[in-house]
């Protein structure tokens, strides 16, 4: 089915692969998406990597499917898996998690947590990938997230959440490392924020100088906070999803739309592409269409042309890469 060839103007500014993705599921998904998007020769979806596992899948898919554009980052829900110094021994592993988790992890949780990955190594890999093209995301700060007893969100689920939160200090170190990469390489960033909008703006405005690099995904801040962003970054985008914020933050988004530009809003699903496509090949497009209708009810003047321009900002000018 080639429905995207007629409807190729619906873009997804922020989406994922399942946290539980593995080789076998990935291969099946690739078959379906190849078929659905075979006639599309330019980016339609901005696919986020969040950790060391989905990184390879995101890159591989982007290399094989022209409709898929890659973004590389460490999501705040995985930041505890990365260390700022190399960690090799059990003792060093314990020290790492004791330093960054609050309260410190129980023995049960510590056993399930993997040996952390050295942040600089991960960043070097991503810098290499960016030479082939790509943007930065998903990155950000999250004050509410708690580490699952399984160690991280992934194949092993069902153990519930521990009381442990990742220190803001550690999250900021990782977040700012990616912001510096974005500024140095002039790549757009897709940013997640829960419960710490002031801190987030502080980090971003310290590092990102260009007005057009910033996309706040599923924005949950206030109208006043948005005005602060707008003052510093007039070309900022907010990517909005049906699932996360169009229903919940409708009143705020309504106010924001009065101060927004034509290219402020971007459509996103923030969902796992593999789940959507394996469920039904047209599900992704249908969801984007519904999101578009809802966004139109908030900002009447919006059309697919302005949304396309906004999406192009989200992936940046790839011709100079
Ligand atoms: Zn996301």
Automatic annotation (TrEMBL):
Is Lyase a UniProt keyword of this protein? no
Pfam families the UniProt entry points to: TatD_DNase
Q: Which superkingdom?
A: Eukaryota
SUPFAM superfamilies the UniProt entry points to? Metallo-dependent hydrolases
Q: Give the residues the record marks as binding a divalent metal cation 1.
A: 14, 16, 138, 270
Q: Which UniProt keywords apply?
A: Metal-binding
Say if the entry is tagged with keyword Metal-binding: yes
| GO terms, molecular function | hydrolase activity, acting on ester bonds; metal ion binding
Q: Which Gene3D superfamilies match?
A: Metal-dependent hydrolases
Binding-site positions, a divalent metal cation 2: 192, 217
- Full protein name: Uncharacterized protein
């Amino acid at each position: 089915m080639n429905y995207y060839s007629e409807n190729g103007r619906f873009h997804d500014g922020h989406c994922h692969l399942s946290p539980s993705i593995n080789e076998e599921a990935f291969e099946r998904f690739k078959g379906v998406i190849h078929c659905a998007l075979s006639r599309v020769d330019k980016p339609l979806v901005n696919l986020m990597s969040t950790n060391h596992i989905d990184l390879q899948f995101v890159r591989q898919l982007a290399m094989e499917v022209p409709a898929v554009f890659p973004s590389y980052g460490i999501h705040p829900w995985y930041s505890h898996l990365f260390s700022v110094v190399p960690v090799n021994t059990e003792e060093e592993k314990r020290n790492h998690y004791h330093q960054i988790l609050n309260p410190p992890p129980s023995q049960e949780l510590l056993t399930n947590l993997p040996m952390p990955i050295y942040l600089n190594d991960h960043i070097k890999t991503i810098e290499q990938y960016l030479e082939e093209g790509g943007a930065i995301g998903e990155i950000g700060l999250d004050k509410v997230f708690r580490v699952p007893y399984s160690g991280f969100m992934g194949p092993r689920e069902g153990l519930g959440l521990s009381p442990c939160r990742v220190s803001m200090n550690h999250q900021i170190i990782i977040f700012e490392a990616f912001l510096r990469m974005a500024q140095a390489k002039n790549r757009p960033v897709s940013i997640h924020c829960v419960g710490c909008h002031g801190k987030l703006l502080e980090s971003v405005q310290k590092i990102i100088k260009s007005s057009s690099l910033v996309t706040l995904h599923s924005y949950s801040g206030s109208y006043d906070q948005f005005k602060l962003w707008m003052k510093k970054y007039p070309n900022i985008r907010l990517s909005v999803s049906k699932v996360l914020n169009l229903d919940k933050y409708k009143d705020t988004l309504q106010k924001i739309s009065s101060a927004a530009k034509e290219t402020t809003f971007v459509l996103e699903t923030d969902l796992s592409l593999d789940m959507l496509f394996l469920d039904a090949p047209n599900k992704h497009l249908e969801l984007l269409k519904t999101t578009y209708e809802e966004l139109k009810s908030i900002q009447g003047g919006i059309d697919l042309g302005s949304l396309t321009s906004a999406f192009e900002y989200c992936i940046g000018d790839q011709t100079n890469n």
